[in-house]
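Ticket 4471: requesting a sanity check on a complex prediction with adenosine-5'-triphosphate. Repro inputs:
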Amino acid sequence: MSSTSITPEHPAVEVEGLRKTYHGRAALDGLSLQLASGQIVGLMGDNGSGKTTLLKILAGLLSEWEGEVRVEGRAPGPESKAMVSFLPDASFLADGLRPADAIAQYARFFADFDEAKAREMIDFFALPWDLTLKEMSKGMREKLQISLAMSRRARVYLLDEPISGVDPASRDVILRGIISGFAEDSLMIISTHLIQDVEAIVDSVVFLRGGRILLQGAADELREQHQMGLDALFRKVYAS
Ligand SMILES: Nc1ncnc2c1ncn2[C@@H]1O[C@H](COP(=O)(O)OP(=O)(O)OP(=O)(O)O)[C@@H](O)[C@H]1O
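Returned structure tokens:
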């Protein structure tokens, strides 16, 4: 992906000395990170390592943290939020909505939302137009939410565990949908435990542990340097 990207003047995401505590305990502990656009980044880490906390801060959904955060050169706020499409790990749509209602809701909320693209993705995923979210399976809901999140013309896409809880065949379909929706000059960060599943689509990875970066780099370089796949590398560095 990176070979066709344009080089922006500033990284799409810049984080310096980011610290976030909950009840005095650090979820992010002085984290620094710079990510250029034009790539898909795998954000990986064990349970509680701070992935969701980081994504929520980048999405402008959490306050009361210390450090410097810039998204497309702006501090998290209304301006940065307009450029960020965030897919939370839990369902965020009302149970009674059907796909067309959800599309209408997104169109009202987001100026950069492309309704036609959302319809295309929903058809790509072969989702039923007549079912409400409540009547859909978890995998179907996940696909619908991904269709909506990917149909914004955002500069930064933040996907929190987009393939957790769906069967392996659906994971592949979801990842294909995600790639088809990815504009190559934007930045996408995908948090996941399922490294093997995303390995083929990520350009670079960030491994978190205890709210800090354990390892970061281009996927190809890490594979070459360590002579192993990212999944094996993850297991090795987290076991040590
Ligand atoms: N609302 C909250 N109140 C208190 N503690 C929280 C809250 N949200 C997160 N934490 C704590 O912050 C730390 C980081 O949590 P976070 O959800 O960011 O990790 P994660 O890497 O996304 O984990 P997982 O892989 O399990 O989803 C954990 O210790 C968690 O208990």
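Notes from triage: The chain has one domain: 2-92+156-239. Leaving this open until the requester confirms.
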